[in-house]
């Protein structure tokens, strides 16, 4: 267990930074505090200020934190998830944000069924210029949905889209990527989820670009460094 009293004096000012972020978010935008690589006491400080949604990207780290920390924390899995790890987080995870294949979607469905749960997920879009193996390009997203197999999955609920913009200084480029993501959201919403109120989440915006993201219609920002300081890997 962490000892709040002995460590609080030289602890990074999590509460102050969290409050600043919260004050800068418009009503209706939810904050996922990205706590990966940060110690439990940082999460506890944010929790004391009322924060309940936290994001992690590694299964084992998440498992340890879930076991140690208050049970009303809503954990979002934000990283690339290997199918063989789904079973470990299925019993308790609130949302899996970065689903980028039908295979993963099916595995989440299977493990959620075993737990008697329905797990909320987001489909991860890949728009950024950076080469990465992860995320669905716009046409891959369209294909996955057009395929229709996802409709049979009773234990996952597709709640929206998630994406990361290019890590660049060019604000116009970042903004254009968010706008493209938003237009894809609208397209998919209209075509497949027009009657589904739960399909409403646009998860974009990180420490360096979240103010642009909220201007471009983000409903959920994922912020780590600005709240908790630099990560120690
Ligand atoms: C680490 C991470 C974040 C938070 O990044 P910061 O720059 O620390 O705010 C957001 N989203 C994803 C998917 C991440 O992996």
Intertermini distance: 21 Å
Could you tell me the mean pLDDT? 95
Sheet with most strands: strand arrangement: 7-6-5-4-3-2-1-8
C-alpha Rg (nearest Å): 18 Å
Into which percent range does the helicity of residues fall?
A: 25-40%
* Portion in beta strands: 15-25%
The parts where pLDDT drops under 50 for at least 5 residues are: 1-9
Give, in order, the helices and strands: HHEHEHEHEHEHEHEHEH
SS element count, helices: 10
How many strand units? 8
How does this structure look, described?
With 233 residues, the protein is an alpha/beta fold. Helix content is 40%, strand content 17%. It has 10 helices and 8 strands. It has an 8-stranded parallel β-sheet. The longest helix has 22 residues, at 171-192. 36% of the residues are buried. Pyridoxal-5'-phosphate is lined by residues 34, 36, 57, 78-79, 164, 206-208, 222-225.
Write the layout of secondary structure elements.
Blueprint: H1 4-7, H2 14-24, E1 30-34, H3 40-48, E2 53-56, H4 59-68, E3 74-77, H5 86-89, E4 95-99, H6 102-114, E5 119-125, H7 138-147, E6 156-163, H8 171-192, E7 201-203, H9 210-215, E8 220-223, H10 225-228
Task: List the main descriptive attributes of the protein structure presented here.
8-stranded parallel β-sheet; 233 residues; single chain; binds pyridoxal-5'-phosphate; 8 strands; alpha/beta
